[in-house]
């Protein structure tokens, strides 16, 4: 296939990342035509004919409007007879709600929202560093899915940073397997804290191993929302003798006053990716791009030469 057979678009939130992915693929990025009306409705249009072409959509679903925009673009691709509709979701909203507690009657939106995306009939959907792989199975087997792990990209980025004598720390045992995998690639020690969740956004972090003594503790997680458990883990690391504390997470949600709390607790750096819209490097954040990794996955799956 030639370059003109591919159309790369994005929802509004993921436009910058979509442009970067297109650049790595050496394809032209196509901006959607959008208009916002006074009554709250939104107009979308493809700027040209997409019939018979391979449509690539980069879309984070961190908000209600971003989720709906992805749905509209997928269905628009089907309406105008794209040859195939391929979606990469760097950040999946509600991804921590992948199961309902028995008797709670809560809606497990991680699954139900992903099911909505699958029912819009894309051909391929890839997700980045999911909180749980349960959402991958929210379809009847007719859609190709891929879970993209950013570990090797993280290792590449960490090795470029000036972090001497560090140890990786998982804030709970649930994430410790991923941390162990990273540690093996970095050839560094790792440990895990005890974490007990007693409310929706409230946790208690117990003591941590003395393996952190005299080292820079790099606390690893898949995402940072309010940062509460990470800050508690940082405090336990210092109590165990860590010389400094940095934080590593793929998805930098940084909700509420998370940024202020990290600064007040003397966190050296918060390292993460650009999967969550609007995150860029500054005096606290060290942000790397997942664009080259997403491009490699698409290039392999779609046989883009």
| Mean pLDDT across all amino acids | 92
Helix content percent band: 25-40%
Task: Characterize the biggest β-sheet.
Answer: 6 strands, parallel
The CATH topology of the largest domain is given as: Rossmann fold
SSE string, helices as H and strands as E: EHEEEHEHEEHEHEEEEHEHEEH
CATH architecture tag of the largest domain: 3-Layer(aba) Sandwich
Q: Could you tell me how far the N terminus lies from the C terminus, measured between alpha carbons in angstroms? A: 8 Å
Low-pLDDT stretches: none
Main CATH class of the largest domain? Alpha Beta
Largest sheet, spatial ordering of strands: 9-8-12-13-14-15
Number of domains: 2
Instruction: Classify the beta-strand content into a percent band.
Output: 25-35%
Number of E-state strands: 15
Number of helices: 8
Cα shape: globular
Q: Taking Cα atoms only, what radius of gyration do you get, to the nearest Å?
A: 20 Å
Output the structural class: alpha/beta
Task: Describe what you observe in this structure.
The protein has 305 residues and is an alpha/beta fold. The protein folds into 2 domains: 3-149 and 292-302, Rossmann fold (3-Layer(aba) Sandwich); 151-288, 3-Layer(aba) Sandwich (Rossmann fold). It is 30% helix and 25% strand. It has 8 helices and 15 strands. The protein has helices spanning 15-25, 64-79, 109-119, 151-160, 176-186, 228-239, 258-264, 291-302, and strands at 6-10, 33-36, 42-45, 54-58, 84-89, 124-128, 144-148, 166-170, 190-192, 195-199, 202-205, 216-224, 244-252, 270-273, 285-288. The strands form 4 sheets. The protein has a 6-stranded parallel β-sheet. Strands 1-4-5-6-7 form a 5-stranded parallel β-sheet, sandwiched between helices. A two-stranded antiparallel sheet has the order 2-3. β13, α7 and β14 form a beta-alpha-beta unit. α1 (15-25) crosses α8 (291-302) and α4 (151-160) crosses α5 (176-186). The longest helix has 16 residues, at 64-79. It is globular, with a radius of gyration of 20 Å. It starts with 5 loop residues before the first strand and ends with a helix. The model has no long low-confidence stretch (mean pLDDT 92).
């Amino acid at each position: 296939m030639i370059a003109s057979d591919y159309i790369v678009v994005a929802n509004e939130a993921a436009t910058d990342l979509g442009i970067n992915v297109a650049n790595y693929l050496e394809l032209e990025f196509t901006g959607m035509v959008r208009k916002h009306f006074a009554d709250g409705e939104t107009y979308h249009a493809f700027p040209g004919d997409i019939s018979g072409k391979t449509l690539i959509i980069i879309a984070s679903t961190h908000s209600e409007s971003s989720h709906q925009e992805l749905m509209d673009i997928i269905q628009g691709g089907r309406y105008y007879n794209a040859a195939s509709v391929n979606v990469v979701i760097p950040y999946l909203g509600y991804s921590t709600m992948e199961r309902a507690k028995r008797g709670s009657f809560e809606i497990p939106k991680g699954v139900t929202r992903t099911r909505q995306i699958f029912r819009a009939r894309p051909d391929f959907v890839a997700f980045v560093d999911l909180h749980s792989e349960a959402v991958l199975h929210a379809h009847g087997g007719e859609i190709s899915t891929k879970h993209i792990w950013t570990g090797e990209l993280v290792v590449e980025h960490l090795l470029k940073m000036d972090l001497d004598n560090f140890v990786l720390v998982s804030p709970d045992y649930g994430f410790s397997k991923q941390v162990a995998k990273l540690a093996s690639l970095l050839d560094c020690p790792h440990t895990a804290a005890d974490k007990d969740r007693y409310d929706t956004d409230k946790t208690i972090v117990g003591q941590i191993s003395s393996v952190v003594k005299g080292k820079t503790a790099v606390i690893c997680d898949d995402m940072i929302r309010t940062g509460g458990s990470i800050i508690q883990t940082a405090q336990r690391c210092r109590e165990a003798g860590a010389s400094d504390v940095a934080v590593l997470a793929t998805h930098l949600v940084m909700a509420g006053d998370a940024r202020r709390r990290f600064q007040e607790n003397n966190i050296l750096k918060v390292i993460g990716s650009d999967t969550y819209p609007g995150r860029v490097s500054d005096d606290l954040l060290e942000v790397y791009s997942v664009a080259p990794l997403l491009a490699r996955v698409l290039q392999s799956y779609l046989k883009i030469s």
